[in-house]
Design a protein that fits this description.
alpha/beta; about 20% strand
Length: about 250
């Protein structure tokens, strides 16, 4: 006796055929689109960049002009920009019929750090060393004075340093009291074992010590609101029940 084909098997067969037909139609339409002159790229729009110059970014991908819009993949675009350390991400959009849009997101400097020999580099929030060929106007960043040898610096790679990590940690504590405080500091450096903060506007020095950072910042803000400090003055907040103000560095 002949076994009847079940209904579910029949539907599965039709489903597979349908998928193959749809995929074949997609391949055919895509091949057609990649051959039509109407889809040749006439213009490229760059957006999202803040520090990197638009003309610089556009010149890098000028090779895409007159190529078919649908023959350009995101991988092709990423390859053009892969050596630019400042680029954090790229979003590619194809605008019918002949425009290519490239949206850039940049790595932004959070601090500068100074090496053992005095060379300055920016680092982003992930401690990635950014290039120092250009210093951008909107990156007036505090400088962390380190003893990192120049030989350990690799552009585009993460830097590991105890002092840098300490500054990032302190910034989080300061932000709970005054998010803008860190921007009022021009430099951080170690003097013996003490971390010194240098005020950006006047140039007086501040020493917080290691404990009760948030409470000490509140005390400093109160002092700055009620007293004028001269350049070269040191405000020493290390002691719990005593405020020390010196005219010389500790």
């Amino acid at each position: 006796m002949k076994k009847k084909r079940s209904g579910s098997s029949r539907y599965f067969f039709f489903f597979i055929v349908l998928v193959i037909l749809i995929y074949g139609a997609y391949i055919g339409i895509n091949n057609l689109f990649t051959k039509l002159d109407i889809f040749k790229v006439e213009s490229i729009r760059i957006s999202g960049n803040e520090n990197l110059e638009t003309d610089f970014l556009k010149n890098i991908c000028n090779d895409f002009i007159n190529l078919n819009l649908y023959s350009i993949s995101k991988k092709d675009v990423l390859k053009k920009y892969e050596n630019i350390v400042r680029i954090d991400g790229i979003k590619v959009s194809k605008i019918f019929p002949n425009k290519l849009k490239i949206e850039i997101s940049e790595k932004k400097g959070e601090f500068f750090f100074r090496t053992e020999s005095g060379i300055i580099f920016p680092i982003d929030k992930n401690r990635i060393v950014l290039d120092n060929v250009n210093f951008y106007e909107n990156e007036a960043l505090p400088v962390i004075g380190t003893k990192i040898p120049d030989s350990e610096i690799i552009i585009g790679q993460k830097i590991e340093n105890i002092l840098i990590e300490r500054i990032f940690s302190l910034r989080e504590k300061f932000a709970r009291v005054d998010p803008d405080f860190i921007n009022s500091i021009s430099e951080f450096y170690l003097k013996d074992k003490n971390l010194i903060f240098v005020n950006a506007d006047i140039g007086y020095r501040i020493v917080f010590g290691d404990n009760e950072i948030e409470e000490k910042l509140r005390k400093l803000i109160f002092l700055e609101q009620n007293r004028i400090f001269e350049k070269g003055t040191t405000i020493d907040l290390r002691f719990k029940d005593q405020l020390v103000i010196r005219s010389e560095e500790i």
